[in-house]
Amino acid sequence: MENQILNDKSLKGKTVVITGGSSGVGRAAAEAFALEGCNIVIAARGEKGLEETVTLLHDLGAVALAVKTDVSVAEDVQNLAEKALQYNGRIDIWVNNAGVMATGKFEDMSADAIDQVIKTNLLGYLHGAHTVLPIFKKQTDGILINNISIGGWVPTPYGTAYSASKYGIRGMVEGLQGEVSEFPNIHVCALYPGMQKSTGNSHSAKYSGLDFKVPPGASDPRDLAELMVKRAKNPKVHTLPDFSAFMMKNFYKVFPELFTNLSFGVVRMMMKPDKNKDTNGNIFVPSNGPAKIYGETALPKITKKTKLIAAGALAAGAIFLILNRKNKN
């Protein structure tokens, strides 16, 4: 029944703003909404990536506009909204998606790098919400979709600034629920996906000798983009898009210390401090890499069967730990 309702609700002609829309999940989202017949406004810092993505959207038959935007700058976000309103005087859907990531020991990151992660990720989402909610309230309808990551529920190994920003965004979403409660047709949604097979990791900043590709089992950005479309049709406050996100959230909830020790231990073993691999990635400047959806993976694609076996092993391990704890008591 839900699928039928979703299929019947058309987004054709709706104006959708997507930050970080020139690569990775943002580009996949732009494609997905374009195929729904939406007017697309994409924002990013890199002009080349914006141009390439708009060309792609035009090829899909969509009306599309690129606006060079640094979401950490409030005036840039306000300009983005003003440009989007030129379509038909309204914004129907706003997707907060732009973000940066930095991994490594906290003390190995410069204060400037830490500040910019917070400015882009947390302040960028706050700027988006602060700009579009008054527009939604004037319209009495609108949907704000926040692509947060599972990092909003669990700590990111050696990504302290990133974790702080993601936990903060979840706080923003929950705080805004009360502020829009008087408007039944205004929705603030949050998605908490696990690792994506996108360009985000390759563009990220890496310190402490960390240099790794997308791990096996990462999810398809196009699946997440399709879920964004579903949330635009059927809004929900919190959504765990994939099985890995569901497992991580609940494993951390039951075994926080074990989760932290295991995840941080694995990443710690990957550090090679004798290697000069420190890079600021795209924290301060637009990404140099091509504007594409998928990033380079460390291993071949993991099958669904393998994921189920791994999930079963984790579940069995959790049951063993619970029984062992009870026996000790």
Write a structural description.
With 329 residues, the protein is of the alpha/beta class. The chain has one domain (2-298): Rossmann fold (3-Layer(aba) Sandwich). It is 49% helix and 12% strand. It has eleven helices and nine strands. It has helices spanning 2-8, 24-35, 47-59, 74-85, 111-139, 160-179, 200-203, 221-233, 243-254, 256-270, 304-328; strands spanning 15-19, 39-44, 64-68, 93-96, 102-103, 142-147, 186-191, 205-206, 238-239. The strands form two sheets. The protein has a seven-stranded parallel sheet, sandwiched between helices. Helix 2 (24-35) links the parallel strand 1 (15-19) and strand 2 (39-44). Helix 2 crosses helix 8, helix 5 (111-139) packs parallel to helix 6 and helix 9 (243-254) crosses helix 10 (256-270). The longest helix is centred in the middle third of the chain and has 29 residues, at 111-139. The chain starts with a helix and ends with a helix.
Percentage of residues assigned to helices: 40-55%
**CATH C-level class:** Alpha Beta
Separation, N- and C-terminal Cα atoms: 47 Å
| Silhouette | globular
Q: Tags for this entry?
A:
alpha/beta, seven-stranded parallel beta sheet, two-stranded parallel sheet, 11 helices, 9 strands
Which helices and strands, and how do they pair?
Layout: H1 2-8, E1 15-19, H2 24-35, E2 39-44, H3 47-59, E3 64-68, H4 74-85, E4 93-96, E5 102-103, H5 111-139, E6 142-147, H6 160-179, E7 186-191, H7 200-203, E8 205-206, H8 221-233, E9 238-239, H9 243-254, H10 256-270, H11 304-328
Parallel strand pairs: 1-2, 1-4, 2-3, 4-6, 5-8, 6-7, 7-9
Helix pairs in contact: 2-8, 4-5, 5-6, 9-10
